[in-house]
Amino acid sequence: MKEHFIGLNDSRTARLFLPSSTEWIQSLGSDPLCVVSELPLFLIGKLSPSLQEPVSKALREELDRLRASPPDLDTATLQQIEADYQLTTVPLELQVRLQISMIILALTAILEGGIRKESNTGRPSRLF
Predict the structure, then answer these.
(1) Which one-letter DSSP state was computed for residue 50?
(2) Which of 9, 40, 48, 113 is the right S-S partner for 55, CB 3.0 to 4.6 Å?
(3) What is the pTM of this model?
(4) Domain extents for the chain?
């Protein structure tokens, strides 16, 4: 985010952002392996009518409309959206299992020599 605001010539806002955890670790030296995962917070149970009309796009548009609406948004409206799109949270146990699996795969790759360095960039070139 800091770089984004620097690019906009907004140094005042850029100063508000501290280094990310990855940037901070890299600043300590050495060559840390960064493994990033992105898990959804919720699942959409409603099926898309077609590949050209993904239900996620419709939900995003509906949420955008709500954000633009007056501040008197009520809980019933959000509950209706939750029901219409059959929203459910990703179970915590599944999230933990996925995170642990990712960590095990990354460590296995390191132990088996599955990560190689590019001589000119210093960045990993291959995983597994």
Answers:
(1) B
(2) 48
(3) 0.56
(4) 1-29, 30-127
